Amino acid sequence: MRPSFCGAVHPVAAQVAALLVALGSALSASAQDQNDNVTPAGQLLTPTAAPGSAFEYFNPELSKYPDFRPSGGAATVLSPDKKTMVIVISGYNLWYDPTGKQDPAASTEYIFVYDVSSGKPVKKQVIQIPNTFVGAAFDPSGNTLYVGGGKDDDVHIFTRSDDGTWSDTGTPVSLGHKGINGVTPSDAPPETAGLAVTPDGSRLVVCNLENDSVSIVDPHAGTVVGEVDLRPGKINPAQQGVPGGEYPYGVVIKGNDLAYVSSLRDREIVAVSLGTLGEQPAVVARINVKGSPNSLLLNRNQTRLFVTADMEDVVNVIDANTNSLLHTIRTTGPDYAVGNFQPYRGSIPNNLALSPDEKTLYVTNAGNNSLAVIDLSARRVTGLIPTSFWPTAVATSQDGNFLFVTNWKSPAGPNPEHFTNPINSNAANQYVLQLDKAGLLTIPLVTDPGTLDQLTRTVAANNGYSVQPDANDQTMMAGLRNRIKHVIYIVKENRTYDQLLGDLPEGNGDPFITQFGYDVTPNFHRLVTDFVLLDNFYTPGDVSGNGWPWSTAGRETDYGVKSITENYAGRGFSYDTEGTNRDVNVGYARLDRRLQAAPYLTNDPDILPGAVDVAAPDGPEGQKGKGYLWDAALRAGLAIRDYGFFCDLVRYGTTSGNTDISAYQIPLERNPASVNLQVAFPTKPALIRNFDPYFRSFDTAFPDFYREAEWEREFAAFDQNGNLPQLSFVRLMEDHMGNFNRALDMVNTPEKQQADNDYAVARLVDRVAHSSYKNDTLIFICEDDSQDGPDHVDAHRSTAYVVGPYVKHNALVSDRYSTVNLIRTIEDVLGLEHLNLYTATARPMTSCFDLNQQDWDFVAQPSAYLVFGTTLPVPQNPPVSVSGGISTHDAAYWAEKTKDFDFSREDNLFDPQLFNRIIWAGLKGTAPYPAARTGLDLRRNREKLLEQAAILFDLETHLPGLATQTQQSRR
Length: 971
Prior knowledge:
Helix content is 21%, strand content 22%.
C-alpha cells in the first residue's frame, strides 16, 4: 500500500520541474500558442488577423516588476487636435513584493499617454493613479486632462508642460459623497464613472455611478457647483418608487448646457440641463432606449446621439434635437456571417467611434471579440474585424487611417516555469485576476471589401457562427431528450482540476499540487472512474462574481466584467451579480416585500425600485433580466426547484455594511424545516416562486451534509408522489472553505470541509440512484469558477462531473469543454431554447454519453476525515485511509490564520491569493507554492509520475475495477 497524497513535502523545485518535463510530453509551441488564443469559453482569438495590425500588452515599465502587465483597459480618449491619446486602465492590478506583501507603489491604476499624430501610436508616458474607473476627458485646449478617481470620489487634474509631459496638480477635486446615497445597506464607497467637459471648458460633468447622480464641477475653481439626483422620486415626490437614472455610466455634452447620461439599470438616457454657473442642474428629458446603455457619442454637428447597449446588442440612434429614439442598429455582424444565430444576444457592444467623414461607425463587441464596421446610411454592419479578448474602447486616428482598440483581459494560458517561489511569498502574482492582461490593438484602415469579408468570416469562425451542426451531436441529444425527463444541476465553489483530481491514475493531472486527493474526496474520485473523467474542462468565470452568471446564464454582462474586477481588488462596487444590487434584494419589486425579507432596510421607495437587476442578462427575445437557465425552463413549460442558488446572504451574518442586524440574523439550524424556519430568500422573481425555504444558501459555517439532508427531505416526497421538477438547481458549496472558528459539528478544517462537500454530493447521487427517477435523471456538477487553487494547465481548468443513465463508464474525455458546453447540454436534453449566442454556438458534451449504457449505480461513502474528525451523523465505514482522517492542523490553527478574512459571502476576501497560500502552507508545509503553469500534457507515463509523487495507491483497494482498465486506453 503506497501512501495517498495529502500534505506530503515535495522534492525541491528544480527536481520537480525536471521530472515533469521528463515524464510529461510538453505541448508544442503551436499548441501553447493556440491555448493562449482560446478564451475559457472556447472562442478563438486572432487579434492581428487584419493586415498590418499590431497588438501590444500595456507595459507601465515598473523598475521593480518589469514583467508586470495590467488588466482593465477601460477607456480611450483623444485630445481635441487628435494628436494625443490617453487610455485609462481600471483593472485588478494588485501586485505583491518578494516578501509576499502587497506593494502599494505597484498596486495602482494607470493612464497611458500616446502620441498618435503620425497615425501609429507611440507611448510617451505612463501615469499612476490610485484608483479610477472609465472616466477621462480633455479640456478644449488639450492641455488639461481630467480623470475620475473611482472609489476615491474625486477628479484628478493633469496638466501638460512645455516638453509634453503630464503631471498631477496634486489637488484632486473632492465630490463630497458619503457612501451610496447614504441609505443602502452596502458599505461600498461612491464611484465616479464617465465624465465630460463643456466645449467652453467652464464645467465638468461627472457620473456618480453608485449615487445615481451627476456632479457639476467648476474645473478652474476646483469646486463642485451643483449636483442632481437622477431618480424621478427624488426630483418629484409624486413619482416616488418610479425607476429612473440609476447606475449612471457614461456622459456626453451637447453645446455648453445639456448633458446626456446613460442609466445602465433603467435603460434610459437622462438629459440634464446644466444651466449657467450658479444655477442648479435639472433633468429635462428621459429617453427610453433598447438594452442597457453604456457609452455615448455625439456626431460633429450634435444632431445625432449614438449609444451602445448591452443586452440588446444594438446601437441606439437618437435625434438630439427632439430627444427621441430614431432606430437601432444590431452590432453582432452581417446576416451572411452570423446566419441563424442573429436573433441571439451576446455580442455585448460597449464603445464606439466615428470615422472622420462620419459615414462609418465602429463599435467594440466585447462578447464576440470583434470591431463592428457599421455603414450609417445603410444602418447595418458591413463587416467585423477580430480583436483581442473583451474589447472595451475604440478610437480613430486624425486621418482615419488607423483604428485603436483596447481590451479588458486575456486568457490565462500556460506559463513556461513551475514551482519557482518560496511558500511565504506572493511574488508569483498568479491569482487568476492577476493573469488577466490588457493591451492596445492598432489596425490599419481596412478599405478592401474582400479583406473585410475575410475578416468577418474569421470572426464568425472564431465564435462558431459558421460551424454546421454536427450530426452525431444531434442524434445523441435527440436520443437523450427522448429518455431523460429530469436534470439536477449542482454548482460548487472555486476548485481547480489538479487540486482534487491530479492524483488520478489517468488524465492530465499534476499530483505534486494535489491538495484534496483521494483520501479527502473519495467520492469525486469514484465518480470520475465510474463515469467520465473530464480532464479538459474550463470555467469561463474568473471568480464567483462572474462565475455564477456563467454557471446560470452562460454569459456575463459588460457591467459585471468591469465592476467585479474592481470589487475584488477593493476598488469599490458592491457584489451585484447574484441578484442583489448594493446589497438590496431586487428580486422583490415592492418595498413592503423587501422589508418583510430584510427588515433592516431603509423605508425609502426610491432605493432601486422595481424588480430590475443591473447585472442580469436578457432572454433570447429581449425578456428583461430573464436570461437564466431557470427562465428558459419556465418558458418551455417545465417545473423548476431552487436549492440555494441566487439568495440574499446578508442575514447569515450580524452586519449589513455598517449596520448591526444581529436581531435579524438567521441562526444555524440543522433541520430548519422541523421548526418552520425560513433560511433562504431568493433574489430572482422566478426563483422566489419555486424554491425550498429551508435550504440554506452560501454559509461556510453550515455543513453541506445538512443541505443535502434538506434536499433529500423534499426529494423523498417527490419520489413518492411522482412530481419531481424537471430541472433542479442545488448549491453545495462547502468546498469554498472558511468560518473555521464557528463551523457546526467540527467540520472546521479544509480537509473536513472538502470531505463534507464530497460526501454531500455523493449522497445526492446515491439517493437518485436508488429512486424511481434513476433511469430518467441526469446529474451535472461543476464549479462556479476555479480561482482558489493551483493548476498546471490553466487557471480556469476545473472539475466537472456527469452522472446517471446513458453516461459512459470508465471513460476519459479530453475534449475541450466549458461551463457553456455543459449548459448547452442541459438545454438540448430538456428541449430548452438557447439562452444566448454563447450557448447557441457551443457544442453539447456528446462525448460523455452512450445510449446503450442505461444502467448505473452509486453508493456514497464518507471520508475518514468525516468519520473520525467530525460529529456529523455519518456511517462508520470510510474507505481505506492513510491519514486516518487526521487533519494537518486543528480548527484553532485555521481560525487564527484566516481571522482577517470575511466569509459572509463567497470570495469576500480582501486578499484571495493570500487565502490560497494559507491553505497551501497549512497542507503542504514547506513545499514551494506552484507559482506558474507549465501546460505540460501529463496523461502519459502516469504510473511513474504518481510513484515519484508517492501517491500511487493500490488501485484495487481504492478504486476497484480500475487497475485493469488503466493498463489499456479508456474509451
